[in-house]
């Protein structure tokens, strides 16, 4: 229940992921936060690190694509898109999609690095992030 441009203003900056409750700090480590190739390190509330690279940012289209290059998460080959669209009359839709593989390529994957762990981790991150976007935007 918030206009798309208001939501994008809160979440569209690759250099600031303070809107996500699991993230304690965002640091741009190379490039400019609004240009493809920029890299950032996200520090989680428990001290873990997630290194990401910006693939594309389309401010007019209110979307950004990024990849994880190194992470404490049980995933690899992770790429995601975060997009905000107008739903009319001061409302918006936020879509956050990702493709990834489990951390352990062995079959079956080791416990904690298997399919279930990967899905649970990413689902939890998306759920808490989307819930907080709604909370801070309305």
Report on the structure:
By secondary structure, the chain is of the alpha+beta class. The chain has a single domain (4-137), classed as Alpha-D-Glucose-1,6-Bisphosphate, Chain A, domain 4 (2-Layer Sandwich), CATH 3.30.530.20. Helix content is 22%, strand content 43%. A 6-stranded antiparallel β-sheet has the order 1-2-3-4-5-6. The longest helix has 23 residues, at 115-137.
Question: What structural keywords apply?
Answer:
6 strands, single chain, alpha+beta, Alpha-D-Glucose-1,6-Bisphosphate, Chain A, domain 4, 138 residues, 6-stranded antiparallel β-sheet
The CATH class is: Alpha Beta
CATH homologous superfamily annotation: START domain
Q: Classify the helix fraction into a percent range.
A: 10-25%
Order of helices and strands: HEEEEEEH
CATH architecture: 2-Layer Sandwich
């Amino acid at each position: 229940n918030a206009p798309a441009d208001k939501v994008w203003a809160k979440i569209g900056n690759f250099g600031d992921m303070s809107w996500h409750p699991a993230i304690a700090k965002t640091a741009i480590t190379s490039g400019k936060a609004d240009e493809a190739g920029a890299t950032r390190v996200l520090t989680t509330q428990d001290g873990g690190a997630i290194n990401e690279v910006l693939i594309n940012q389309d401010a007019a289209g209110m979307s950004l694509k990024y990849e994880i290059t190194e992470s404490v998460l049980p995933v690899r080959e992770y790429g995601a898109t975060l997009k905000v669209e107008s739903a009319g009359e001061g409302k918006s839709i936020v879509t956050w999609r990702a493709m990834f593989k489990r951390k352990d390529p062995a079959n079956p994957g080791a416990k904690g690095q298997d399919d279930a762990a990967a899905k649970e981790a990413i689902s939890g991150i998306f759920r808490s992030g989307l819930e907080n976007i709604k909370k801070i935007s309305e």
